[in-house]
Amino acid sequence: MAASVPWETALELCEEVRAENRRKKLRFLSFQALPCWGCEGFSKGDPAKMCIANGCSLVGARYLKR
Question: What is the pLDDT, as a whole number, of residue 36?
Answer without folding.
Answer: 85
